[in-house]
Amino acid sequence: MISWRAGLIWLLLAGGANALELSLPAAARQTVARDTGPDSYLAPTSAYEDGGFASVTIEGAIARSAWRLEAPGLTPLQVMRPLRTQLEAADYRIVLDCSAVVCGGFDFRFAIETLPAPNMYVDLRQYQFVTAVKGSLQAPDAVVTLLISTTDTSAYLQIVQADTQGGAAGPVASIVTQDPQPAAPDAPAQSPSKMASALEKFGHVVLAALDFDTGTAALGQGEFDALVNLAAVLKDQPDLRIALVGHTDSVGGLQGNITLSKNRAAAVRQRLIAAHGIAADRIDAQGMGYLSPIASNQTEAGRDANRRVEAVLLPAS
């Protein structure tokens, strides 16, 4: 049993009139946040059929966040119900409420805006989606969409809130929780089987817990489970080719960060070749600098998540 009163998350958009308070369990951990404004958001108002869905577009401040809840055995509907009730209590009107099959399965999932894995995970057979509006459907004052999916052990929740009164530049949402420790984005599971599955399903996987000296491309001397398991995947599938792509936070200039991120990817490549016997022609190394964040660079936890190396699946030669 989970408690929905132990943790409180406040989403306060600039402008204030449509500020929304949602209560989540204390066990919920934020994995990523991305706020933009002024911006536009297209929210579905019908299931996917005949090549598309009905929608409403709202312009203003857009606050996006993803959360993970360790709660074995829950269904998406069990997680959604208390949130749906809270939306209605805050004078939002539910205009779309559907499960995976009813929403449109694969087509719906990939037509809507979704934060990237591993911060937001969606099982195509097991998710629930809600769109709620405040004001008229034709010209809403605010829109909230909730996307929930579950696994055997966890629930994943994406919240997108759009507010016409929050168009000021700069950060447009603040999130305060009762947890005294900031929640860092979750690292993906790194076992060989799950890593292989992630590469096949998403085309990339973050190599968790690599250790680089600050501001340098010097990879620590640890064995690093992520590299051991990636090497196992490559040995098990000899036709597999990957690109190692380095990423940084947004501190410093772009060119310097691109160089640093590429050098870090090259250091990982060299370790796989030298320590694990992977053929050099199966691994490329590139750097993106700060151009592809997975978390907000406005917090230390977010910057730490953005400093990463990913393995990206390449076509077989």
Query: Can you count the helices?
Result: 7
In total, how many beta strands? 13
- Shape by Cα distribution: globular
Largest sheet: 6 strands, antiparallel
Could you tell me how far the N terminus lies from the C terminus, measured between alpha carbons in angstroms? 50 Å
| Widest β-sheet, arrangement of strands | 3-4-8-7-6-5
Question: Percent helix among the residues?
Answer: 10-25%
Radius of gyration: 21 Å
Instruction: Point out poorly predicted stretches.
Output: 1-16, 167-189
The assigned structural class equals: alpha+beta
Mean pLDDT: 83
What sequence of helices (H) and strands (E) makes up the elements? EEEEHEHHEEEEHEHEHEHE
Give a description of the structure.
- By secondary structure, this protein is an alpha+beta fold.
- Helix content is 25%, strand content 33%.
- It is built from 7 helices and 13 strands.
- It has helices at 76-89, 100-103, 105-111, 192-202, 225-236, 254-276, 300-306; strands at residues 7-13, 20-24, 28-44, 55-70, 93-99, 127-135, 140-150, 154-163, 173-174, 204-206, 241-247, 283-287, 308-314.
- β1 (7-13) and β2 (20-24) form a beta hairpin.
- The radius of gyration is 21 Å and the shape is globular.
